[in-house]
Amino acid sequence: MQQTTLQVGGLTPMTTIDYPGELAAVIFCQGCPWRCRYCHNGHLLPRISSDPALIEWDEIIAFLEQRQGLLDAVVFSGGEPTLQSALKPAIQQVKALGFKIGLHSAGAYPERLAELLPLLDWIGLDIKALPEDYAALTGVSGSGENAWESLQLLMASGVAYEVRTTVHTKLLSPQKLKKLQYQLQQAGVAHHQLQPCDTHHALDQRLSA
Ligand code: SF4
Q1: 48 CA to middle of ligand 1, Å?
Q2: Would the CB of 147 count as within 6 Å of ligand 1?
Q3: What is the fold, at CATH topology level, of the domain defined by 29-208?
Q4: Could you report the per-residue pLDDT of 175-200, keeping only the tens digit for each?
Q5: Please, which contacts does 12-16 make with residues 24 or more away whose CB atoms are closer than 8 Å?
Q6: What is the model's pLDDT at position 14?
Q7: Considering only CA atoms, which residue is closest to atom 7 of ligand 1?
Q8: What is the number of the ligand 1 atom nearest to the C-alpha of 32?
Q9: Which atom of ligand 1 is nearest to the CA of 79?
Q10: How far apart are CA 48 and CA 56, in angstroms?
Q11: Which tens digit of pLDDT belongs to each residue from 154-178?
Q12: Could you read off the pLDDT of 34-67 as tens digits, one per residue?
């Protein structure tokens, strides 16, 4: 059965940095199937949360109705937003309010991403490593294949994008990074952003040493 209510673990009411060039709100979707060693959103990872900080979807819609004409865009972030089958109807509802739609994803569910791409105006896709190096980072076998399949879908879609890679030298050596940059270029990626790793609340605290 399709889940009809998006589980939301947090909301940023206004930001200029999460959707290039647009004033946006960010909805943080609950749940992620991966456990990246550097993840600093531990509270968003469980699929089902009883956290009192969860925000009712109706509250989100009420908030956005008050921001029509004031905000340009709404970004669905996470966690991994594509984990929830409620994401598509949620996007459709927000799009109908007149907002541009942004998505932050790590590409964990290529089939769901394929369905969502026609609804998106912009996507920030994390490509964390070469496919063969993903499992050591995410703890999940097959995660690299899914992420790179999502990248192929994105490249074929024509949707505006930024591909992002978080760099921690313990996880991505300079040699690996060079190879990754080459592979991304081969895949047709023209917009690739490196971001420093914030290990402050990392799942694997050994990374902060
Ligand atoms: S994919 Fe993102 S949210 Fe999920 S564990 Fe990795 S860094 Fe955290």
Answers
A1: 16
A2: no
A3: TIM Barrel (3.20.20)
A4: 999 999 999 999 999 999 999 988 88
A5: 13/63, 13/67, 14/71, 15/75
A6: 97
A7: 39
A8: 4
A9: 3
A10: 14
A11: 999 999 999 999 999 889 999 999 9
A12: 999 999 988 899 987 677 678 999 999 999 999 9
Tell me the DSSP string of the chain.
----S--EEEEEEEESSSSTTS-EEEEEES--S---TT---GGG-SSS---TT-B-HHHHHHHHHHTBTTB-EEEEESS-GGG-TTHHHHHHHHHHTT-EEEEEE--S-HHHHHHHGGG-SEEEEE--S-GGGHHHHHS-TTHHHHHHHHHHHHHHHT-EEEEEEEE-TTTS-HHHHHHHHHHHHHTT---EEEEE---TT-SSGGGG-
- Pick the atom of ligand 1 nearest to 166's CA: 7
Cβ(31) to ligand 1 under 6 A? Answer: no
Q: Write down the pTM of the prediction.
A: 0.95
Residue-wise pLDDT tens digits, 93-149: 999 999 999 999 999 999 999 999 999 999 999 999 999 999 999 999 999 999 999
Structure tokens at 58: 């109706």
Q: Residue 208 pLDDT more than 90?
A: no
Question: If you take atom 2 of ligand 1, which residue's CA is the nearest one?
Answer: 79
Q: What percent of the chain has pLDDT over 70?
A: 97
What is the domain partition of the chain in residue ranges? Answer: 29-208
- CA-based end-to-end distance of the chain: 45
